[in-house]
Structures are given as C-alpha cells and as structure tokens.
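ok new one. same drill as before - structure tokens go in, u give me an amino acid for every spot. 127 of them this time. try not to just spam alanines like last time pls lmao
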C-alpha cells in the first residue's frame, strides 16, 4: 500500500475511469479484473492503481477492493446492472456528469489522459 498522501481514493479512480466507457458495457468480472490487474503492472498507471491487491484465483486475478467498489457504485445508483442476467453495466448520463463534476474534475483532472487510455484498454477487453 502507498504511504504517500493522494487526493483521490481507489473508488474515485474506478468511477472516473468508467466515465470514459460507453453508456453500456459488458459486466464481465474476468475481463474487468484481469484488465485492471494488467494495467496496474504498467508504470504509468501504478500510482492510480497501486491500492488494488489481486488474489490469483483461477480462472482470473480477483481484487476484493475492485469488487466492493463496483458494488458500492451500484448501491449509490451511479452504476446499474441490467436484469435479468446482469450481463451489462449501465452508466446513465446524470451519473456520468456527477462523477465528472465531483470526482474527475476536482480530484483527478491531471490524470484524465491516463484514465482515458486505461478506459480504452478496458473497452477493448470488454468487446
């Protein structure tokens, strides 16, 4: 874990990252966790993702923190999962704008380009 103060939390990073994805995207835990774990190993994203610990479960690396963050975003109604199979997440326009205004612009504006690049890789993985 990082000992240096950061003006953002892991939840801020994931919420902001999601604002760069399409309105609907696949709810595929294997691809989401695997992609974030792979991005974490890249030096330019390490500062953003260093708080995530991954357990090497078969068939994919799993981060309990990432799982909790995605669940909390749903509990806060910022992110929803489409029924009945929960195969897709939906980030509504109002939620996207609230995250951009209250988190991305206030806490992570200097990381917007990195977050956009990370989202691009996640988007490709979720196809």
């Amino acid at each position: 874990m990082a000992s240096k103060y950061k003006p953002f939390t892991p939840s801020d990073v994931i919420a902001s990252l999601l604002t760069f994805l399409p309105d609907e995207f696949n709810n595929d835990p294997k691809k989401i966790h695997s992609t974030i774990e792979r991005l974490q190993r890249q030096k330019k994203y390490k500062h953003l993702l260093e708080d995530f610990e991954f357990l090497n479960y078969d068939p994919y690396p799993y981060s309990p923190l990432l799982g909790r963050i995605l669940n909390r975003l749903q509990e806060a109604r910022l992110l929803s999962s489409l029924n009945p199979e929960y195969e897709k997440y939906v980030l509504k326009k109002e939620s996207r704008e609230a995250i951009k205004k209250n988190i991305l612009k206030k806490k992570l504006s200097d990381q917007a380009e990195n977050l956009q690049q990370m989202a691009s890789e996640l988007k490709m993985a979720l196809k």
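The mean pLDDT is 94. and btw The chain has one domain: 10-125.
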